């Protein structure tokens, strides 16, 4: 008999069972059909599930996704973005536009040229960022800085250079270092200076090399007998350091000044990150040419991201002088400072340095590196200190960027200034804070002064201060608030913060009160610098120090945030502040520099002769009295060094 | 005959299923490339534009996030340059003085985008200082926004679509570069 069982070829028989005897033609047909449709259904389902990922591209636009049709209809307005983190991410930094119905302000040259500062360091034009390698040598203070010679935005970075006898009157010199070697072809980035025992200078700096890998390079003055240190030589064996294993090629920059260990080696730190943990790597060297990477990190803190511009230095627990970076005696604390890439803020922590196991331990872990106190609660980044052996003090530089629109920067042809250099000391009274104060040499800019004693400012009032022109001022003020008001006020457990408050117009029982800076007569533009006292439900008082930009300008394309923080006020202390007003920059110091705020403001009306100064008290239940001394400030006449042979700008 | 027919049906159904299954697994194989674009674009404000833009460049299939940022910036540069050309061409034939003023301002904004913002963003991504890349891309979005606002009270906005793409794509690039911090 013929064998009626089907013989299936090898290729198609995937686990199915063909050996069912075909007793009757109909049943297998039904079975096969049902199998077929079942598998068809499975196949269709699979095709359906996978199609969503692929066809957006096709269905979105029939042709090029970036092509646009020639319609002339207008749809919903574009969403403006803040200049800091992009839309959809936390808006901690600059918030540029108030809402989408605002218009870019028609800045004219008069308004823009007014913005240039009179006594803050800035190059004649273009872009600047981090301070580099500050030092004192043969009678001159030297300042180097990240500079773009071609545009008022970051890019093509080289080292600018300037000198001064007093940290205030600066003279521009030719560029110190340019991107002329493979190891810094893509950028001559931030670095620090170290003095050798014989008085010679070595500079360690980051180069972005021709492959855009971040490496560390050694440079030194070409001629140590030249007090202006105009020419610099790069070590022929550069780079001296490349990213070590475990560190990515773009997470390795900004070496610190080195300090001596008790074994006589030089030690320095360099910031980086491992995933989202900010870290400080440590190296030892005897000659700045050969290096030994030490195990572990000087400090590491989860979630802080990349640590830029690490700074590490000793402060005296008892004395009023600064300390050389190598000092490590028992009467000393150490400060570790980092610039956080993630939020553009500088943080410092006080703690103890253990040389033997190469670690830094914060005094208070709740304010660890990158999560604690800030040098400055306004615009302030990439700060760096140096030990000034000329006057035995530690001096701090900080980069102050712009808070206006980039279009305005392009129009005015420059962007960024440096803060006035500040001395840094440990606050002996609190033990937790640093005190920052403008270097004493700035007093040499003071011209005529105005004194006001015990001016009484009632609750809800504004008092004009006649001081003449109000765009270049040094203001020192002390405030007293009615004691009964402090005692009578009812406390609450509502937490206050400058940035989330309504600014100076939000009235509380015990604040705000302070100064209205760069204000016009009608107060249509004003920048309040003020105190706000909050009373807790336990009766304890907390003092806040704020800087309110919300009405600093009628222009809407400038930063309108409110900056500030709590300032510790100890028993018996009066509320004190110092404010430096210099055109588009305001630096304000509360309580001897325990809390500092720097802001950039861009008024359109409160400029030139129309800028005025007021006292204000917007508290509801407390009268305030203020005593002030105010000086007109001269220009520092910052300009190119005269009669230099090889001026190469 | 019946047997052949049922055989054919069976084979067809198996082939169909096999095809469907391999289609899925093929996507799984390329899954790493496609899903990095998707997960990256999910963190931008304009997902579809992000995905279609990145996918339109063959370099995207093997790229890491920095590579995607670079591709986005390159695409943005092309679009902004083309839009600038569109604007200058329109200026030649426009007779309406209000329209001319608005277009002239947009020339300034687009010069800033092409000359400063995008090169800053590319340099920052390539060299590894991403915060300046976020700033450059955000500035580009703001310039495009400013250009658009010049047409607020105008009856016609001839470059609306191109300008919107430049704005949105700038925002996308800014978000991607933000991930590199």
Can you walk through the features of this model?
The complex is a heterodimer of chains A (649) and B (181). Chain A is mostly beta strands and 649 residues long. In chain A, the strands form seven sheets. Chain A has a six-stranded mixed beta sheet. In chain A, strand 1 and strand 2 (140-148) form a beta hairpin. The longest helix of chain A is centred in the first third of the chain and has 35 residues, at 26-60. Chain B has 181 residues and is mainly alpha-helical. In chain B, helix 4 packs antiparallel against helix 5 (97-127) and helix 5 packs antiparallel against helix 6. Chain B is elongated and about 80 Å long. At the A-B interface, helix 1 and helix 3 of A face helix 1, helix 3, helix 4, helix 5 and helix 6 of B.
Brief rundown of the structure:
The complex is a heterodimer of chains A (649) and B (181). With 649 residues, chain A is mainly beta.
